[in-house]
Amino acid sequence: MKILSAEFVISAVGPKQFPQDSKPQIAIAGRSNVGKSSIINSLLHRKHLVKTSQTPGKTQLINFFIINESFYFVDLPGYGYARVPHAVTDAWAPMI
Ligand SMILES: Nc1nc2c(ncn2[C@@H]2O[C@H](COP(=O)(O)OP(=O)(O)O)[C@@H](O)[C@H]2O)c(=O)[nH]1
Ligand SMILES: [Mg+2]
Predict the structure, then answer these.
(1) Cα separation of 90 and 48, whole Å?
(2) pTM surpassing 0.85?
């Protein structure tokens, strides 16, 4: 697929902020630090659109990116080990 555009849309803290149009949303889920954010950049041939980090727990919100104005990639926080307080990771579970 040719990537014509790839833009950040929103860092959502909960479902009320999720885009409400009917375009497909492809979410990347997995443990912390496995490369979820990196694979989105890789698929889009972009290096820095999605923030990546060597520190587990960098992605703390649900980040939506719109691709070719036709579908979304959704970068989720990881589950499992993250170098952030448990209160923060506990809040992720229902969000994910
Ligand atoms: N060796 C290697 N490192 C990777 C790969 N994908 C991501 N990383 C590194 O793994 C770390 C975590 O990546 P990130 O995409 O932030 O993971 P996320 O927490 O799942 O979003 C970063 O330091 C990346 O550079 C890969 O395919 N191979
Ligand atoms: Mg990430």
Answers:
(1) 28
(2) yes
